[in-house]
Amino acid sequence: MDLPRIYVSLSKRRLYLYEGNLLIRSYPIGIGKILTRTPIGNYVIINKVPYPYSRPGGPLSPYGTLWMGLSRPGYGIHGTNRPSSIGKMVSRGCIRMFNQHVEDLGRRVGIGTSVMIRP
């Protein structure tokens, strides 16, 4: 069985999950603003950190329900507490997803999964 890999198209604002040459899933994403663009390149997922929907007496996490850190420090694929931001150029360079989508992706990929980000 082929390992999963992630391909991100910034121009289409989509994240694609492949196993070999087979497309498994496609998700809409939010990407970096003009001044804080999402970095183009080849990376790997280096960690996965779940977040609760809310903390007692505290705000929702800006990373939604899951953070998956990339091998480029400070960047990751994560959920959001602002679902209206999906499809837009609004982040500080990270890739934002709907919480239910990042949770689905997180169940399908592991640490070491390759992530290709292209224009």
TrEMBL record:
Pfam short name (any one): YkuD
Keyword Transferase assigned: yes
The protein's name: L,D-transpeptidase
Signal peptide: none
UniProt pathway annotation: Cell wall biogenesis; peptidoglycan biosynthesis
Keywords: Cell shape, Cell wall biogenesis/degradation, Glycosyltransferase, Hydrolase, Peptidoglycan synthesis, Transferase
GO MF annotations in UniProt: glycosyltransferase activity; peptidoglycan L,D-transpeptidase activity
GO annotation, cellular component aspect: extracellular region
Positions of the catalytic residues: 78, 94
Stated family: Belongs to the YkuD family.
Superkingdom, taxonomy of origin: Bacteria
GO biological process annotation, one example: peptidoglycan-protein cross-linking
Location of the L,D-TPase catalytic domain: 4-118
Record carries keyword Thylakoid: no
Organism: Polycladomyces abyssicola
